[in-house]
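Weekly sync, protein design subgroup
Attendees: M.S., D.O., the rotation student, P.L. (late)

Item 1: inverse folding check
M.S. brought a backbone from last month's batch and wanted to see whether the design step gives back something sensible before we order anything. D.O. pointed out we never logged the input encoding, so this time it goes straight into the notes. Structure tokens as presented (348 positions):
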């Protein structure tokens, strides 16, 4: 890949006997929106802190724009970090908060105020430069933190769960804004999150972390449609696996298959009408949950195992849904949605 901004090779970090990061190799391209997704404790923050220079690696190397920065101090790297608890200076105005790093770098006053105003405009806080942080909502404070990060025009912005403290509505709105800002300024974003939906909606590519290792790197569609390991299949989206005897009966071959819930049709007739291109199964509805726009069915298969099916509520109402519980149904989906999950990677 050309124009590579970040290259991690065999990156490791041990805290005593805990291997927080157990050998990570990643290539993040120039201008990419790259997410590190994984459960709590999987090593995402530690990798980010090593890229920023706050934490020396136990082993491995970090390259930024072609040069080895593994042993450089944070201020010697062309990166900026935005943390979840975006600490703003409470006694300063927004403009002063944003211009602060420029002041440290001795940028003349007129120039730094102009750049601060530009940065505030970019995050849609135009004209609010004289306010103080206490006069802002959570989402606005978050945007000030972002403006502060953008004003120095770093090549790389590192963001550690920057939306984690916001409520759902605001978070979804900020996801869209953040993505738009990134596209506009064209700098590389390395975005840490434990929220799979957030990663899927915002990223060009995603690295899925588990226990200090990367299980898969790919586009959102690749990660979602073709999970490389059972862990990825379970962590990204609803875990919906057919294994053992159930796989042999329903799919026709042994293995572990992942089927995404929205691909499965629920039929009121429990007769499994097989066609050459479709897989079918018969079972009993253990639970039917009305979600407003859709209904989620948990179906215990006669062949063994349980599948989740998600149906759009084209005609269904909440009253109909209750009637499904305990009833016998047929499930049907196209064979191309049977994705054979590779065996778990051998850990060394
Ligand atoms: P994540 O950001 O994915 O939640 P972290 O990188 O924060 O994960 O942590 C990875 C592992 O390293 C965890 O087991 C955590 O407890 C441990 N860890 C992180 N920082 C420290 C530290 N400063 N001292 C000791 N253990 C740490
Ligand atoms: Mg973390």
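Designed sequence read out in the meeting:
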């Amino acid at each position: 890949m050309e124009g590579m901004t970040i290259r991690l090779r065999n990156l490791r970090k041990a805290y005593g006997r805990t291997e927080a990061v157990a050998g990570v190799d990643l290539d993040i391209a120039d201008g990419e929106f790259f997410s590190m997704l994984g459960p709590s404790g999987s090593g995402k923050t530690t990798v980010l802190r090593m890229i920023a220079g706050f934490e020396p690696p136990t082993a491995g190397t970090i390259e930024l724009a072609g040069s080895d920065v593994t042993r450089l101090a944070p201020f010697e790297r062309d990166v900026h970090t935005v943390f979840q608890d975006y600490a703003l200076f409470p006694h300063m105005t927004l403009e002063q908060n944003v211009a602060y790093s420029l002041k440290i770098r001795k940028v003349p006053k007129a120039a730094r105020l102009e750049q601060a105003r530009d940065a505030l405009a970019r995050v849609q806080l135009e004209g609010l430069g004289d306010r103080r942080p206490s006069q802002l909502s959570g989402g606005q404070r978050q945007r000030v933190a972002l403006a502060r990060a953008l004003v120095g025009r770093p090549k790389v912005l590192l963001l550690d769960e920057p939306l984690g403290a916001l409520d759902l509505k605001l978070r979804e709105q900020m996801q869209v804004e953040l993505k738009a800002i990134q596209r506009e300024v064209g700098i590389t974003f390395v975005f840490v999150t434990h929220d799979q939906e957030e990663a899927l909606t915002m990223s060009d590519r995603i690295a899925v972390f588990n226990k200090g290792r990367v299980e898969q790197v790919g586009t959102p569609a690749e990660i979602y449609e073709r999970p490389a390991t059972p862990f990825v299949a379970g962590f990204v989206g609803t875990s919906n696996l057919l294994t053992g005897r159930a796989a042999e009966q329903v799919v026709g071959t042994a293995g572990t298959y992942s089927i995404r819930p929205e691909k499965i049709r629920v039929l009121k007739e429990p007769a499994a009408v097989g066609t050459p291109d479709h897989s079918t199964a018969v079972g009993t509805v253990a639970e039917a949950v009305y979600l407003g726009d859709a209904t989620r069915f948990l179906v215990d298969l006669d062949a063994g195992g349980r599948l989740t099916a998600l149906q759009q509520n084209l005609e269904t109402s909440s009253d109909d849904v209750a009637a499904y519980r305990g009833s016998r149904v047929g499930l049907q989906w196209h064979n191309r949605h049977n994705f054979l999950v590779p065996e778990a990677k051998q850990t060394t």
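Discussion: The domain at 241-340 is CATH 2.40.50.100 (OB fold (Dihydrolipoamide Acetyltransferase, E2P)). The chain has two domains: 4-235, 241-340.
Action: P.L. to compare against the previous round before Friday.
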